[in-house]
């Protein structure tokens, strides 16, 4: 039997006094790939931001269980140390903070949490070479400041480096495929597929089926009116791509 990683029950979330999530339920088992689709503004990012403890998102009702613990009791650092990773739609630029230093610190914080020894500079370098080398990802980004002046695609590649190095258990990707060239989409798919070890789970937001063709999701969910309105498999994404939201019974709230 599959082991549960995340269970969201009756989740209500407000941003700036507006209720965005209105009783959402979702369960993710270890090793599963879940895709979240939905019209613009439906609340997809709000869900993953809530799971990452983003300060904008205020939980007013509901329960979230992660690794059999109450996720809402965990602060942002604990969530990261417990293996929750989020790749943002638009990663923030942090001038003055060296990318390599940032990543090494994040890895060592997680290692300390797990009772492991810190990686020194040489070990960190060796690990970076190994991990990025598998996918031909340019390491020069590590020498620059975090996302500072990175192109859209470079920001996404940097998220992949973080993913490979941090090896999280719950990988949340918010439109990691948007704005990427075809080769970069393949790299994203290869990295995602390489992370799948039967235990790590993925919750990814996308508007297109291009990446889904390469990663074969287990479930595709459509978020509408603050809840999961429909769940299917990869074929649901194909149907959506072909027919649009209204034809599959989902009201576009932007219209
Ligand atoms: N900081 C904020 N202040 C005010 N409203 C916000 C804020 N963040 C999000 N919202 C609103 O919450 C709603 C849900 O936004 P969210 O980003 O979760 O949608 P989404 O489904 O990810 O959309 P998209 O597909 O366009 O990325 C939108 O109406 C948005 O305007």
UniProtKB/TrEMBL annotation:
Residues 6-250 form the ABC transporter domain. PANTHER family: ABC TRANSPORTER I FAMILY MEMBER 6, CHLOROPLASTIC. CDD domains: ABC_FeS_Assembly (cd03217). InterPro entries: AAA+_ATPase, ABC_transporter-like_ATP-bd, ABC_transporter-like_CS, FeS-cluster_ATPase_SufC, P-loop_NTPase. The keyword Cell membrane does not apply. This is [Fe-S] cluster assembly scaffold SufBCD, ATP-binding protein. Keywords: ATP-binding, Nucleotide-binding. Pfam families: ABC_tran. Belongs to the ABC transporter superfamily. Ycf16 family. One of its GO terms (molecular function) is ATP binding. The gene is sufC.
């Amino acid at each position: 039997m599959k082991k549960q990683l995340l269970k969201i029950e009756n989740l209500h979330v407000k941003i700036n006094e507006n209720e965005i999530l209105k009783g959402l339920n979702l369960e993710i088992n270890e090793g599963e790939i879940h895709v979240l689709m939905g019209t613009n503004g439906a609340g997809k990012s709000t869900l993953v931001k809530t799971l990452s403890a983003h300060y904008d998102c205020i939980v007013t009702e509901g329960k979230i269980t992660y690794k059999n613990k109450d996720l809402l009791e965990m602060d942002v650092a604990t969530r990261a140390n417990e293996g929750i990773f989020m790749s943002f739609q638009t990663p923030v630029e942090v001038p003055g903070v060296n990318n390599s230093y940032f990543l090494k610190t994040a890895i060592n914080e997680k290692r300390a949490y797990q009772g492991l020894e810190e990686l020194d500079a040489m070990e960190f370098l060796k690990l970076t070479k190994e991990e990025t080398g598998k996918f031909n990802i340019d390491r020069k980004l590590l020498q620059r400041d975090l996302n500072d002046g990175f192109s859209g695609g470079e920001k996404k590649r940097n998220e992949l480096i973080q993913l490979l190095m941090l090896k999280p258990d719950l990988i949340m990707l918010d439109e990691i495929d948007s704005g990427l060239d075809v080769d970069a989409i393949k790299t994203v798919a290869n990295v995602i597929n390489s992370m799948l070890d039967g235990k790590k789970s993925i919750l990814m937001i996308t508007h297109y089926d291009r990446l889904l063709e390469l990663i074969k999701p287990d479930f595709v969910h459509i978020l509408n009116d603050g809840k999961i309105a429909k769940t299917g498999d990869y074929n649901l994404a194909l149907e959506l791509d072909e027919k649009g939201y209204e034809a599959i019974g989902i009201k576009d709230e932007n219209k």
